[in-house]
Amino acid sequence: MIQITTGDSRPIFKQIVDGVMLKIASGELNDGDKLPSVRGLAIQLMVNTNTVAKAYNELTALGVVESKKGLGLFVCAPKGVLSEAEKLAKLDEAITHLVSEVVPLGIPFQTIIERLQTQLASLKQPCKQD
Amino acid sequence: MIQITTGDSRPIFKQIVDGVMLKIASGELNDGDKLPSVRGLAIQLMVNTNTVAKAYNELTALGVVESKKGLGLFVCAPKGVLSEAEKLAKLDEAITHLVSEVVPLGIPFQTIIERLQTQLASLKQPCKQD
Amino acid sequence: MIQITTGDSRPIFKQIVDGVMLKIASGELNDGDKLPSVRGLAIQLMVNTNTVAKAYNELTALGVVESKKGLGLFVCAPKGVLSEAEKLAKLDEAITHLVSEVVPLGIPFQTIIERLQTQLASLKQPCKQD
Amino acid sequence: MIQITTGDSRPIFKQIVDGVMLKIASGELNDGDKLPSVRGLAIQLMVNTNTVAKAYNELTALGVVESKKGLGLFVCAPKGVLSEAEKLAKLDEAITHLVSEVVPLGIPFQTIIERLQTQLASLKQPCKQD
DNA sequence: GTGGTCTAGACCACG
DNA sequence: GTGGTCTAGACCACT
User: Fold this and answer.
1) What is the DSSP letter of D12?
2) Residue D31 in contact with residue D127, Cβ under 8 Å?
3) Protein residue with the closest CA to the C1' atom of nucleotide F15
4) A86 vs C85: CB contact, 8 Å cut-off?
């Protein structure tokens, strides 16, 4: 399940968003799968209903899930609305963010790349990465 | 100089801290070098003076700079305040974040690694990484 | 000012979002302009602070405004991240929405086009539309 | 047949109502034509039977269809339940919505009008619009 | 002072 | 039962 860490700098709703995104990235959640209900997840994580709702809203806005009213939220992975150039722009932005957070620690570049490769390899890649 | 991004999730003062530490890690700032004055940097970055002051306080607390009264702030010998294990933990967390943001977009793993290598290479790796 | 209509089918926060977007579209709000504070607008519109905050969040997510922590929200019009093809896709989607709402009423097509032209003409177009 | 879009802001039953009225407005459905059965349409659209029933109730209440017991629902003479002024008000509201969504993207006015004309033309304007 | 987050509890529309 | 919206009131970090 999704792990909420109180000591985390990220707000709770962001941790939920990241948790779901990670499950999608790793193939644990696939296209069409139903997310746990807002109330159910709230009880399970011991947080307020609104906090989960906010996280789910964010996921909907990101286009990775879709809400079917009265039924629940469902993963909708295929979102080809972004052009390749924009994907690269997002990628570069995310990488810059990583670099500016991690390089100041004095970690050798080689280590950074290795750990990234390790994490990527641990994902059951959905399809065309084989 | 240091880049401030308004869209960044980190507060401005943290961006300044990271920016200075990045310059130290990359060898652009060396032991004994003088940091720009609080006011000067504030004007240059177009941020509030208090924000720069807070960043400089943080840097002093971290032990990477030292204040010499009436003269300014100076870089002092870089101490590894964080243990290797802590660094790796931070690194892994940051990488997980990157992965969950980028993989759902369907970007090939190879591309992610390549762009990271490109960005790291552009930093001109300092001596101690060899 | 922004008008909130209780009889409107759209939720309040959406009305605020649309109101701000419209002001930007009409050139009444320009790049760099500051939005009214969350609390100020909430009092003025006689709604809850969170409702305004939610609207402002939405606007931030849409990329039309940017939050500078501790200072307020500012309009940031130039967002060239979308390719022309995607703009057209968004346009067509919005038009389809309009059509499916309005044509069932039996309004002559000519009238629809005329009213659209009228509304567009009433906007002080920012720049390249001259 | 009728198109159901999950991403639409309108609930499904409203989309069905609008879809049927659109077919009537465009002349695809004429006075006396039989509507598909509740169950049949529900299966075809892959939605809940209650949803279609609700839409059909709405259409009956609007007076655009009539139920003949044991036979089904039939289109009846289109009455202008809404005054012209009300129609125009709805039209203007919908257009304002379109404008505030699309103009901030920086799309030339001419393009907007052209795409609208294209979509309207593809509907094959019925007789009474001449 | 600013926005951002969280809780608690309520009501609504949809299916 | 589902998610969506709104209110009320609280606390926090940043400037």
Assistant:
1) H
2) no
3) C70
4) no
C46: left (phi over 0), alpha (psi -120 to 50) or beta: left
- Secondary structure element (H or E) that encloses residue C66, with its range: strand C65-68
| 3-state secondary structure (DSSP) of residue A66 | strand
User: CA of A84: which chain C residue's CA is closest?
Assistant: C83
Tokens of C82: 């979308």
| D37-67 pLDDT per residue, tens | 999 999 989 898 999 999 999 898 888 888 8
A3 CB-side CA count, 13 A:
4
Residues D18, C82: C-beta atoms closer than 8 Å: no
Residue D104 identity: P
User: Does the predicted TM-score (pTM) go above 0.70?
Assistant: yes
The answer to whether the CB of B15 falls within 8 A of the CB of B2 is yes
Whether B7 sits inside 8 A of C66 (CB atoms) is: yes
> Mutating which of B4, B5, B6, B9 best tests the C interface, going by the most C Cβ atoms within 10 A?
B6
**pLDDT confidence bin for C16, thresholds 50/70/90:** very high
The residues near C21 (Cβ < 8 Å, ≥ 6 apart) are C59, C62, C64, D100, D101, D104
How distant is the Cα of D87 from the closest Cα of chain C, in angstroms?
7
Tokens of B82: 């964080």
Residue A39 has pLDDT above 50, yes or no: yes
Phi, psi of C82 (to 5 degrees): -90, 135
How far off is chain C from A86, nearest CA to CA, in Å? 7
Cβ <8 Å between C68 and B6: yes
DSSP string covering B55-113, please?
A: HHHHHHHHTSEEEETTTEEEE-PPP--S-HHHHHHHHHHHHHHHHHHHGGGT--HHHHH
The tokens for C35 are 């939005």
Q: Which of residues 13-52 of A touch strand E (CB under 7 A)?
A: 13-14, 47-51
**B100 CB contacts (<8 Å, ≥6 apart)?**
A18, A21, A22, A25
Per-residue model confidence as pLDDT tens digits over A106-121: 788 999 999 999 999 9
Query: How many C-beta atoms surround the C-beta of residue D122 within 10 A?
Result: 9
Neighbours of B74 (CB within 10 A): 15
Beta-carbon count within 10 A of B85 CB: 8
Q: Is D109 in Cβ contact with C125 (below 8 Å)?
A: yes
Shortest alpha-carbon distance between residue A107 and chain C (Å):
30
Q: Is the CB of A52 under 7 A from strand F?
A: no
Nucleotide nearest to B14 (CA to C1'): F14
A126 has a pLDDT exceeding 70: no
C-alpha B109/C-alpha D24 separation (Å) is 51
For position A49, what pLDDT does the model report?
96
SS3 C126: coil
Show the CA angle centred on residue B108, arms to residues B105 and B111, nearest 5°.
110
- The C-alpha atoms of residue D102 and residue C90 are separated, in whole angstroms, by 8
